[in-house]
Amino acid sequence: MTTVLPRTSREVRLARVPEELPVPTDFTVVETAPPAPAPGHVLVRNRHFQVFGGLRTLIGGGAEGTPVPGLRPGDALFGPAVGEVVVAPPDSSLRPGDLVTHLLGWREYALVPLAGCAPLDPAAEPVARLSSGSAAYGALTRLAGVREGDVVLVTGAAGGVGSLAGQIARLLGAARVIGTTGSPDKAARLTSELGYDAVLTGGSWRGEQDTAHREFSRQLTEAAPDGIDVLLDNVGGVQFTAAVAAARQGARFALVGALSGQLDPQGPGATAPTLIDTFGLVVKGVSVRGYTGVDHPEVEAEWHERFDGWLRSGDIRFPLTRFEGIDRAPRALQELTGGRTFGTVVVDLPGHG
């Protein structure tokens, strides 16, 4: 059987460094020749790719010191993707038609090193492989160690990590799960759809900081009058400051993101300064650790196994905001960084080539 190779491929490139938060005109969708098959590589037709907030840092000039390279004007964007194998080396276990995951999203066709792609279980839901749940699961199991009866606070609860983190915490035994988000509509969805006991809408990083801190601290005290045992932090800023004050003895804080800095339109998304009461951390014996997947390589497979099981049993929901077509990908990033999406943001690519 002869494989028909694509005639053209399109990809999203950075046109210029955004002046503030990214807008569609900061990017360009370019039609180019498809990548040619090469030894040790798999040619993949992408079906779906994830849009994630960390791109704000990578395109804003703040990637120095991060595990992934920054992007310059003219570079194609990248990120987690699910695609169908078009051409595979004859000595590999992959065959045309197989589904794989890899990190070369934001393009219709990708030439992926064999070591850079993983076959997808045919029984699994393909888009579920684009969840950010492994970060939430790893942070809650490896760093925070959620215990039966814990009170857990998840900041940025309506994002790709947070929308799963609260549910995971509950499945691990948490007695009360509190979230934060930026809008009442999202707060309502988090309680009605995802099982959060309470959701706080104060603590914005875009407003006056003293006022935001007082309002958020008041809400947190009402939601957790006896304090919190675990923090899964996606935000930082005044929300982290208030969490320290609310910590119980021996509380465990796991830091996954820093949206207060990443989504600050006045900076490159590379820093997230926070006022911390170190005396409070010492007296209460609070542990504070940052989570990165590279430090816990075993988590990914463990997460997928548990996530697949929870999805099949209906014990967990996987909220998505979907955009169709590569032309809409820049708009998807703008909607995400502007706080107008819910759950994991995915671009679906219809048949092409």
Concise overview:
The chain is an alpha/beta fold and 353 residues long. It contains ten helices and 15 strands. It folds into two domains: 154 residues, Medium-chain alcohol dehydrogenases, catalytic domain (Quinone Oxidoreductase, Chain A, domain 1), CATH 3.90.180.10; 163 residues, 3-Layer(aba) Sandwich (Rossmann fold), CATH 3.40.50.
Q: Tell me the CATH architecture of the largest domain.
A: 3-Layer(aba) Sandwich
What share of residues is helical? 25-40%
- Biggest β-sheet, characterized? 7 strands, mixed
Structural class: alpha/beta
Cα-atom radius of gyration = 21 Å
What's the number of domains?
2
Q: What would you call the shape? A: globular
- CATH domain topology of the largest domain: Rossmann fold
The CATH superfamily of the largest domain is known as NAD(P)-binding Rossmann-like Domain
* CATH class term of the largest domain: Alpha Beta
The helix tally amounts to: 10
Q: What's the total number of strands?
A: 15
Mean pLDDT: 93
Tell me the β content: 15-25%
Distance between the termini: 18 Å
Description:
The protein is an alpha/beta fold. Helices cover 27% and strands 23% of the residues. Strands 3, 4, 5, 6, 7, 14 and 15 form a seven-stranded mixed sheet that branches. α6 links the parallel β11 and β12. α5 crosses α6. The mean pLDDT is 93. InterPro entries: ADH-like_C, ADH_N_2, ER, GroES-like_sf, NAD(P)-bd_dom_sf, Quin_OxRdtase/zeta-crystal_CS, Zn-ADH-like_protein.
